[in-house]
Write a structure and sequence with these properties.
The complex is a heterodimer.
Chain A: H1 3-13, H2 19-24, E1 26-31, E2 35-36, E3 42-50, E4 59-60, E5 66-69, E6 75-76, E7 79-83, E8 88-93, E9 98-115, E10 118-124, H3 129-132, E11 138-155, E12 170-174, E13 187-193, E14 196-197, E15 202-207, E16 218-222, E17 228-231, E18 237-248, E19 254-265
Parallel strand pairs in A: 2-11, 11-19
Antiparallel strand pairs in A: 1-3, 3-4, 3-8, 5-6, 5-9, 7-8, 9-10, 9-11, 12-13, 13-14, 13-17, 15-16, 15-18, 18-19
Chain B: H1 7-15, E1 27-34, E2 46-52, E3 58-65, H2 83-88, E4 101-102, E5 108-115, E6 125-134, E7 140-149, E8 158-161, E9 168-174
Parallel strand pairs in B: 3-4
Antiparallel strand pairs in B: 1-5, 1-9, 2-3, 2-6, 6-7, 8-9
Classes of the chains: A mainly beta, B mainly beta.
Chain lengths: 268, 175
């Protein structure tokens, strides 16, 4: 398996790779609009893992883990889903006014071990880990990974019910509403890991449309002790935000949690 | 989310139309020029007029000109394209609204007058009349014209002009 294929498969599984590889492949959900008016409007959403934001140039996002939550906190159907060569696409109808969260949540496990002096690797679902490794495996190092790729859309007036964190993995708790972003105003968010403030975490914020620019703008900010970070948008546009937290659980297994959001910042 | 202007304030104001005139003959006279544009595909702009306080918070929506007569209120679909108005006031409003909704206007100068009763509830101070125009297959522009309320004699028109989607906006607060 070539390095590229390996990266692609890992990205599809939602498995966090070494930082260098993870940077090259960015997961995203790109909605056709984030601020809508009128009765029961629709959004169409593209999902992909690509090198250039937000152009589908690598592999599609698999739709298995994509879910939407409505303004009342209840699940909302993903409709007309299709997966192509480079991207997936689906529709969401905003049947009642308020804010919807669309998220691709994935979990996986990765293990490296030695068998007969040879280093081997395994990756798959967390539930399969117990039976997947050979009995004579030694030097087993397990990494549990979780990843959320999110975006937000609002019909009419925004509300916050759908934004409530689930307390699992790395999550964004908006202080500024994610569908109330304009270029002239700073935005504040809190990063949570398993429901607790994620302090000192670097957040990368990148503007889409890089194909038509030399570079950037790209921002890096670090969360404070309370997990809060602030963003001053250099310009309006569709922005991509990512953070990763590495750690270990009590058993010594590694944990890697990733969070990605696509945020639309409108001009004044 | 910032605290948003109250649409109910407007509703209250429109309800006040029948209330005693409170010896308030003051009025706000607004002239909005919609420019004639030489473009391949022209649609009349959606236009919103509202009042902002010194903090640029919307106090009251005065008028929204849009495709008010499309079936099933389909014109509402594009109300969000008047972005500033939508964020500050429109998204918490119910449209159409009596005395606010009106049809789109042709290129030319349009004179509208708002009575003191319609502006009841505005504390004395400095305000801006804001006009935002958004055109299908076209651009968007916002023009702000300052005025003081209640007006003092003599009435002096204040003016600002857009560059693309709006021409001159003239505001006269008459005591």
């Amino acid at each position: 398996m070539s390095a590229l294929r390996f990266a692609a498969v890992a990205a599809l599984l939602g498995v966090a790779l070494a930082p260098a590889a993870a940077q090259a492949h960015r997961s995203w959900l790109a909605p056709s609009a984030t601020v809508l008016s009128g009765a029961q409007p629709w959004v169409t959403v593209d999902g992909a893992v690509s090198n250039t934001l937000f152009y589908a140039d690598h592999v599609p996002m698999r739709l298995d883990g994509v879910k939407a939550v409505g303004p009342d906190g209840a699940p909302v159907a993903i409709q007309n889903g299709a997966t192509g060569k480079y991207r997936s696409t689906f529709d969401v109808q905003l049947a009642s006014p308020g804010t919807y969260k669309i998220a691709n949540v994935s979990e996986g496990a990765m293990a490296s071990y030695k068998q007969g002096g040879e280093t081997k690797r395994w990756r798959g679902a967390v539930g399969q880990l117990a039976t997947a490794l050979p009995k004579d495996a030694t030097d087993v190092q397990v990494t549990y990974s979780s990843r959320r790729v999110e975006t937000f859309v609002t019909a009419g007036a925004p509300n916050t019910t759908a934004l409530k964190p689930e307390g699992k993995g790395l999550e964004l708790e908006p202080i500024t509403h994610p569908n109330d972003l304009v270029a002239s105003e700073k935005a504040r968010f809190r990063l949570l890991t398993d429901g607790k403030p994620a302090a000192g975490v670097e957040v990368e914020i990148v503007l889409g449309g890089v194909r038509y620019r030399e570079k950037g703008p790209e921002l890096k900010v670090t969360t404070g002790a309370d997990g809060v970070f602030e963003v001053s948008w250099p310009e309006a546009g569709l922005w991509w935000l990512e953070a990763t937290v590495q750690g270990a659980d009590a058993s010594g297994a590694r944990k890697s949690s990733g969070y990605v959001a696509t945020l639309e910042v409108l001009p004044d | 989310m910032r605290v948003k202007p109250s649409w109910t304030l407007f509703a209250a104001a429109s309800g006040l139309a029948a209330a005693p005139a409170a010896a308030n003959a003051a009025e706000l006279s607004v002239s909005v020029e919609i420019p004639r544009l030489s473009v391949a595909e022209y649609h009349r702009p959606y236009v919103a007029l509202w009042i902002e306080n010194a903090d640029q918070a919307a106090m009251k929506t005065l008028a929204v000109w849009y495709d008010v007569k499309l079936k099933n209120n389909e014109g509402n679909t594009w109300l969000k394209d008047m972005r500033q108005w939508w964020r500050k006031a429109g998204r918490t409003a119910t449209m159409p609204a009596d005395g606010v909704s009106g049809p789109t206007k042709a290129p030319g100068k349009h004179q509208v007058t708002f009575s003191g009763a319609q502006l009841a509830g505005l504390a004395p101070g400095q305000y801006a009349l804001v006009v935002e125009a958004s055109r299908e297959v076209g651009g968007r522009e916002v023009v702000r014209v300052p005025f003081a309320w209640p007006p003092k004699a003599p009435a002096r028109p204040a003016q600002a002009a857009g560059a693309t989607e709006l021409g001159a906006v003239v505001v006269t607060a008459k005591p």
